[in-house]
Amino acid sequence: GKLVYAFGGGDAEGRTGMKDLLGGKGANLAEMASLGLPVPPGFTITTEVCTAFYANGRQYPDGLREEVASALAKVEEVVGARFGDASNPLLVSVRSGARASMPGMMDTVLNLGLNDETAKGLAERSGDERFAYDSYRRFIQMYADVVLGMAHHDFEEILDDYKMDRDYVLDTELSASDWRGVIAEYKRAVEHRLGEPFPQDPQAQLWGAIDAVFGSWMNERSKTYRRLNNIPEAWGTAVNVQAMVFGNMGQTSATGVAFTRDPSTGENAIYGEYLINAQGEDVVAGIRTPQSLTRDGRERQGTDGPSLEEAMPETYAELLSVFETLESHYRDMQDIEFTIQEGTLWMLQTRTGKRTAKAALKIAVDLCEEGKIDAREAVMRVDPSALDQLLHPTLDPDAPRDLLTRGLPASPGAASGEVVFSADEAEAAANAGRRVILVRVETSPEDIHGMHAAAGILTARGGMTSHAAVVARGMGRPCVCGAGDLRMEKDGEAVIAGGRRIGRGEAITIDGATGEVFFGAVPTVEPELSGDFATLMGWADGFRRMGVRANAETPLDAKTARGFGAEGIGLCRTEHMFFDAERILAVREMILSESESSRQAALAKLLPHQRSDFTELFTVMRGLPVTVRLLDPPLHEFLPQSDEEIAEVARAAGADPEAFSRRARQLEEQNPMLGHRGCRLGISYPEIYEMQVRALMEAACDVVAETGEAVVPEVMVPLVATRAELSRLRTRIEAVADAVFEEKGRRLDYLVGTMIELPRAALTADEIAGDAEFFSFGTNDLTQTTFGLSRDDAGSFLPAYVKNGLLPQDPFVSLDKEGVGALVRIAAEKGRAVKPDLKLGICGEHGGDPASIAFCEGVGLTYVSCSPYRVPIARLAAAQAAI
Ligand code: PEP
Ligand code: MG
After folding, report:
1. How sure is the predictor about 867, in pLDDT bands with cuts at 50, 70 and 90?
2. Where does residue 56 rank: exposed (0-12), middle (13-18), buried (19+ CB within 10 A)?
3. Residue 430: in which H helix or E strand, if any?
4. How far from each other are the two terminal CA atoms of the chain, in whole angstroms?
5. How many CB atoms lie within 10 A of CB 594?
6. How far from 349 is each of 28, 33, 164, 463, CA to CA, in Å?
7. Active-site positions, per UniProt (predicted)?
């Protein structure tokens, strides 16, 4: 097929819908060109060429050279200049452009086509000798770095020495002949290092750059970025070759970047930065501090120089109308790059802008209210996982704080942690369970693994649109960047901020919403969930079919869950109610008792505690269903460990410590996760479950009597493998419930159901359904038992499986659809075949994972249940799955 697509000069061979083939950048350049916007002409080499290149041992497909040559000829014709022509040279940029944006991960070369001859030609033609040689030296530096594998700083050193020798401070002090001198030294350095001269042939330069950009698809940072963002390697990148335009041709030239709405807050106001007399990389590299695009933005963005609106009002007006065209064409906030060459505006890029979760919400709601999209689309626009950012704490406004310094508010959320100074350190500390703030002079794309591991990121340099700030926002990490008064100590052991020294390991707090940095750990408060959040969640609820419940045991968690919109409790893990000091003693006494009567005595001590727990829980959840799971303790978590602990239990029970110690040894298991757990315990010691059912039925009757509102208990039996287990326990549950109703003189509706968390239960679900009113898939255990993979031990080797591509994702995080999912599907079908109105839920961790929730929708589950903080994520994900 076609390998190269041309654009510019008023039309284009590609369009936006061809992102898979042309990459995001190429497709959007084509689209802008066909909208009639001013786009420098160029062409895109497709992602299929990249894929073929790697499939064929780094060989290009036949015909590529011919297609590139003819596309280049078209560019020459539109521009009216020739590639390599000494008197009127065409210069091009060569850039990557994958399907999904990968900011800063791959390579770019600008000013390509310059050599000793064409530089002279450019000087004459532009009438600006200094500009021409400055461009040439930039090209040598960039090309040597990206294509020839030399280091950027080798050239910085040469330049610094050159300036030092002549007492120059700023680059602007160098004249054209100075730049020629620097160029001579640069070329010498290249020849010295590589044993051959800097390539003078523009064709050789072009193919060198194309090779390098395709090559950068497989560099380490691209691979890491793809892994973190689930971007398949098979997608490949496109290469865009485009006529150069120059923002550095004097005071009527400029270059800039803009978001059509504020990417941090979502406010409907242009957010942009620009630099007069500069090239694009100068803005994003954070070398000079860019100025605000708009007059209003000067204050918001904290810049003091004139805005573009003030400096070039006519070009600004033209730019504004381009923004409007693009936003209404794409019906979404755009992230735009432009250059002004001697007063003429050129568009270099547009793409859907990355944004914080807060901005995503506001923009979706605003676009809907502006009539640009409908509610359905608004709901689809917000990534459920990104809501996590909003649900995170912010600084407690009443807490004392000790301000160290300030930077730019690059990514919202507050975080505190120990200071570390390298990405590797951050990763190691996070793996050891420590919360860290990664502090860097500037965050480069090589740092992404450390940014991912850190609780927050703080940098001394770089603007809001620096590549690293964009990456932090995408990851949802709080980030403060460009904190100008930050100084790293030479030995890399400490940082100086606000005149104070903070050593490695000392705590600081950053507020990514304000840009403030504080000494020590500042307490945080929970977020406020109203406004746009409530509006969008309301729309989502209108599209949602599945219910959303929470996994909660404590009244506090239950309140949080209700606040987040949970429609009931899908899993109350009763063993979690026994961990406090007084109760654990009675639990241990119960476990270690050898006779039923002493076990009954221990249970009698637990009953009032259980009853009051359930009373509180039912009171909070009035009117909503509450699924109480009967005790499922991996026994080892409850057994006393030391002699002192055994003695303490024996004392409380009035028993012989020797006997208890013997019994504790008897109860020790080789493999507690597959041992005397779940309903097996209830089968061995029915009195335990009887106590629990009594406590919960008494509590339910009391709350109904007290409030007059319904309480809907659902009694759930864990780890069932056979119908016989469930039948036996069900009989007991019903007997206790009847007894309580008799005593209380009141009957309540309640359900008895089971967890499905063993393959045998899933495969025999038609039998089990005979004794169950509901199933709840315990996909934590179902994953453990389907893979034969210990939940508690998988952490030591599973990450390597994911890293090496043996598993697409950690199956304990995102449901394994093919294996575990097949069992869920079988159980759901078999269960419903017997009992069409069987309620089906999921309460493993997967109940809060958007991809797993989409699977649950496909299987037709009744509800998902997840931890309280994930309830909003689940509501939105369930809505998207249903749309
Ligand atoms: C499960 O196994 O998925 C489950 C919810 O139960 P637990 O995590 O308590 O074993
Ligand atoms: Mg389980």
Report:
1. confident
2. exposed
3. helix 423-431
4. 36
5. 13
6. 7, 11, 38, 19
7. 467 (tele-phosphohistidine intermediate), 843 (proton donor)
pLDDT score at 465: 62
User: Which one from 467, 572, 679, 856 is the annotated catalytic residue?
Assistant: 467
Q: List CB-based neighbours of ion ligand 2 within 5 Å.
A: 757, 778, 781
pLDDT of 47 over the 70 cut: yes
Q: How far is CA 561 from the centre of its chain?
A: 23
**CB of 366 within 8 A of CB of 265?**
no
Token readout for 257 is 């970047």
Degrees, nearest 5: CA angle 527-530-534: 120
Average pLDDT over residues 599-607: 92
Calculate mean pLDDT across residues 817-828: 98
Tokens 């290009």 belong to 60
pLDDT in tens, 610-629: 999 999 999 999 999 999 99
**pLDDT category, 653, cuts 50, 70, 90?**
confident
Identify residue 525 by its one-letter amino acid code: V
Pairwise CA distance, residues 7 & 669, whole Å: 70
* Token reading at 208: 């060198």
* For the chain, percent of residues with pLDDT exceeding 90: 70
Return the closest-CA partner of residue 780 out of 665, 678, 642. Answer: 678
Kindly report the average pLDDT of the chain as a whole number.
91
The confidence band for 474, taking pLDDT boundaries of 50, 70 and 90, is low
Token output for 662: 């013997």
Beta carbons of 525 and 852 less than 8 angstroms apart: no
For 549-577, write each residue's pLDDT tens digit: 999 988 888 998 998 999 999 999 998 88
Residue 336 CA to residue 330 CA, distance in Å, equals 12
Query: Mind listing the pLDDT tens digit for each residue in 112-150?
Result: 999 999 999 999 988 899 999 999 999 999 999 999 999
φ, ψ for residue 254, nearest 5 deg: -165, 170
Residue nearest to atom 10 of ligand 1 (CA): 781
Which of 50, 572, 701, 843 is an active site residue? 843
Alpha helix locations (H) across 630-722? 643-653, 657-667, 679-684, 686-707
Say which residues have a Cβ less than 8 Å from residue 663's Cβ, sequence separation at least 6: 592, 594
Q: What token pair was written down for 276?
A: 């007069």
> Does the annotation mark 192 as catalytic?
no
Which residue is associated with the tokens 């942690």? 417
- Evaluate: CB of 575 within 6 angstroms of ligand 1: no
pLDDT band at 491 (very low <50, low <70, confident <90, very high): confident
In the numeric block, which tokens belong to residue 2?
């076609």
Greatest Cα pair distance, the chain, in angstroms, is: 104
All residues at 6 or more sequence positions from 153 whose CB lies less than 8 Å from its CB, including other chains: none
d(CA 693, CA 717): 11
Domains of the chain: 4-243 (3.30.1490.20), 254-355 (3.30.470.20), 392-525 (3.50.30.10), 544-882 (3.20.20.60)
Question: 3-class secondary structure for 486-498?
Answer: CEECCCCCEEEEC
Encoding tokens for residue 61?
Answer: 């497909």
In this predicted structure, what is the pLDDT of residue 639?
83
* Minimum-distance ligand 1 atom for the alpha carbon of 575: 9
Say what the pLDDT of residue 525 is.
Answer: 78
Tell me the C-alpha distance between 665 and 690, whole Å: 26
Q: Is 572 a catalytic residue?
A: no
User: Is residue 759's pLDDT more than 70?
Assistant: yes
pLDDT at 477: 82
Cα 291 to Cα 307: distance, rounded to the nearest angstrom: 6
Distance 782 CA to ligand 2 centre (A): 8
Give binding residues for Mg(2+) as ranges: 757, 781
pLDDT band at residue 514, thresholds of 50, 70 and 90? confident
Instruction: Establish whether residue 573 lines the binding site of ligand 1, counting it when its CB lies within 6 angstroms of any ligand atom.
Output: yes
Amino acid letter, residue 471? V
